[in-house]
Amino acid sequence: MALKFLLVALAAISLANAFNLTSTGCADAAGFQSCQNAVADATSACLAQADKDHSSLESLACGCTYYVFNYNCYAEHCWNRVNECEYQAYVAQYLVQCPNAKLPVPYFPTPSNPPDSCSCNLGEVLLEIDNGIQQSTTCTSNAAGNVQKIQGCKCCEASAALSSIYGLCPDTNPSLVGLDQVNTIEKLLGTNFTSCSSSLS
After folding, report:
1. Single pTM value for the model
2. Cβ-count burial of 136 within 10 angstroms (0-12 exposed, 13-18 middle, 19+ buried)?
């Protein structure tokens, strides 16, 4: 399965469910708030134009641009908080919801165990899930139409996604670190991991 197809499907998630960045504890809270206000104004104008054009694609682009400008505001003014869950979750949400999102993103993923870091390295989880998707795409291409091999590729993708969550963050509630995305992957693949034992043996 192509990564772009997955990300387009996940992008349908409402931006209203996005994590928000706050100025609490920022090194320059006033600077962040001013920067964020300018981003919000630009995004409102962008969305108004998209509405005039009756373009859902433009609306999605406005939302994704909002993410980029907003995390750049945070990186500039709240650099002292970038290892915390709030910023890491926000960037992960951007990478999942925006079809053209790509790395590098400032301060993401966090290095191993920096001070004040999120207990689960969300960036590492997301990169491992993405790696599983890429490997599945290669596997499926190499399967040359063999249905059984393709099913095995799908099962490996689901397994890699689940393993990234439980392997990297064994003490974290999986629903907080990507289990919903894994469920979405399984639906898009038409494969439930519980039915994969014969394909993975």
Report:
1. 0.78
2. buried
